[in-house]
């Protein structure tokens, strides 16, 4: 009898585990009153694209790593005069004017946690209401007649394109119309603003994914010399640095200098494979972070034609720094000087 009871309990437990797994794998259900616009699981979603008459934003999966998101920011051809985009084949403008109308190349940047959350909300894509097919007068009233704004959702290599209503006094009411069947939907208010402000909301602006206390030594290189410091302490820091050759004598100057390096905040992130104006900047100094002898990360500060730039183990490329880094670069030589020279002895 006891064996039978144990077997029954085991079977029930197994059924419960299977049910829990099925529920966990299931896509989130729609809320009260919601309608599904694009019915697809998030794992099948390839990209989302927002565009208007002057720019576009793509949030897409990396081709080699499906679990990594990238944000592509680009401009469309600039408008000149009242005739719309400049027609360089018509011979109505000289070569200089034609070149001036060309947009900058798109910039690809790593997506942040907000991008991950936003991406998952597009598959399935849901709306608060389905309005069906509207007549021409109603389409004009809601701003869908002449709008240049588009939303494209790509799932499994297939695209669904929607026209977004022209904004009135800001984002206004987010109406969208399917270009497949002409049906109009009313989106919730939280989806589109992140795409509109993608540069500030969706881009990963971290220099490191580790924190103070996650390393126990640093190697600072500048002016052809290098010096190793042991590091103690943790966030909010700053950490204490003591030269390897004199571990009993913490270096206050190096500590303060490193704290300023750690707190560098870029003002503009360049995309992957993008170089600053004038080409590869020249390295001014480098800080390597280690733990138990193994590399944790690094930060390189270099000078280009337009000022100083920084690059780390996490950034996709160079990032432009604010003015005032000159002093930090000059002091790096003092930090890497031998103990006798640094102390003035």
Note down, in words, how this protein is organized:
This protein has 345 residues and is α+β, with helices and mostly antiparallel strands. The protein has two domains: 35-77 and 95-201, no CATH class; 217-342, no CATH class. The chain has helices at 2-25, 95-100, 113-120, 136-141, 192-196, 198-201, 252-262, 326-335, 339-342; strands spanning 35-38, 45-51, 55-61, 69-75, 107-110, 125-127, 129-132, 150-155, 158-164, 175-178, 184-186, 217-222, 225-232, 240-243, 268-269, 282-291, 294-304, 307-312, 319-320. The strands form three sheets. A nine-stranded antiparallel sheet has the order 5-4-3-2-8-9-10-11-7. Strands 14-13-12-16-17-18-19-15 form an eight-stranded antiparallel sheet, covered by helices on one side. A two-stranded antiparallel sheet has the order 1-6. The longest helix has 24 residues, at 2-25. It is elongated. The N and C termini lie far apart (89 Å). Residues 15-31, 81-100 and 341-345 have low confidence and may be disordered.
